[in-house]
């Protein structure tokens, strides 16, 4: 079977992505063929495209999609043709009209959740789920700091943390983004370009600091984030949009109050099927009841992925972005 996909033959800038025809193999025993209806755009796609996270060349990028099952392998019992499914896992290959996927990495999309919502929220939403419910389990009354509060994960974390009874402090790059974050449950947006976010956070918390910082920015925010934590606080470094964090003298964690540091990944948190299903189920539940709204603020045709990546890296996007095959 033939289909079209974005292919990367040499890593580099957005222009490294090309739209071309590819062949789709028949599904193996434990695989499913999916015809995509929507594909999620995520910052990790930039890391793969640029070569920061190496992948064997040539490859089709993308880790998140939703669509309809077209065919199933001989050993697949959980899914049938016509089922609506979504995923946010390896293997790479979401930037395609049709693809083959391991059945044990898929979840069914429940009624009340659209394909575009599912594609927009699986990776970012399950990231928010493990951050708030497992890495550091947010309790009512906690105050948290989330960097890039107006981004895809940021807006979901703000809403979900608020739903859990937390006070949310978030860093943003502009007044427009501050307003967006505020509308999604961020109690204290901080304009990091014009304000010292450490001083502002200390002021908000009466000098105490916060029990947890969720940081996907990396190089530009890492060390200052440590200064936002109270003793025994947890630094959760889950991304590096500004660049890699410099090598760290772990003595710094002791000096700043016996801090905990973790560098988690969604793939580790959803490696077991039971964890994947539980994470997706909890996400679908908070979305279905309206506690967390998925904001799809940009859509692009899949063949225009180059422009989508340019806008993402220029921080022109807010909320979630979906590519349409």
UniProtKB/TrEMBL annotation:
Gene Ontology CC: cytosol
Keywords (A to Z) from UniProt: NADP, Oxidoreductase
A family per Pfam: ADH_zinc_N
UniProt-recorded name of the protein: Quinone oxidoreductase
Native source organism of the sequence: Paramagnetospirillum kuznetsovii
InterPro entries: ADH-like_C, ADH-like_N, ER, GroES-like_sf, NAD(P)-bd_dom_sf, QOR-like, Quin_OxRdtase/zeta-crystal_CS
Residues of the Enoyl reductase (ER) domain: 12-323
Lineage, opening ranks: Bacteria, Pseudomonadati, Pseudomonadota, Alphaproteobacteria, Rhodospirillales
MF-aspect GO terms: mRNA 3'-UTR AU-rich region binding; NADPH binding; quinone reductase (NADPH) activity; zinc ion binding
Entry keyword annotation includes Disulfide bond: no
